[in-house]
Amino acid sequence: MQLCRIDGNVVSTVCHPSLHGFRLLICQPLDCEGRDDGAPVVAVDCQGAGHHQRVLITGDGVATRACVKDDTSPLRFMVVAVLDEEGPGEVTS
Question: CA–CA separation, 69 vs 47, rounded Å?
Fold first, then answer.
């Protein structure tokens, strides 16, 4: 699992058949302090994440391909959870 921030979405005129009907998001990995940590990755969104939300993604390609129901899909990353808007240590009322 990797903590990420959603920085945008991917638009394509031609794509693998397994991607039809799914949103692809640009996910910027974050370190434990909330700073950028490495290069962005593309993840399929099965949770309804929004722009600039913090999410958890998984790199388990088998689970990702199961989500899109296609064993031949080129996908590897998938959003598995949308986190609260508050940063670490902040409490909501």
Answer: 16
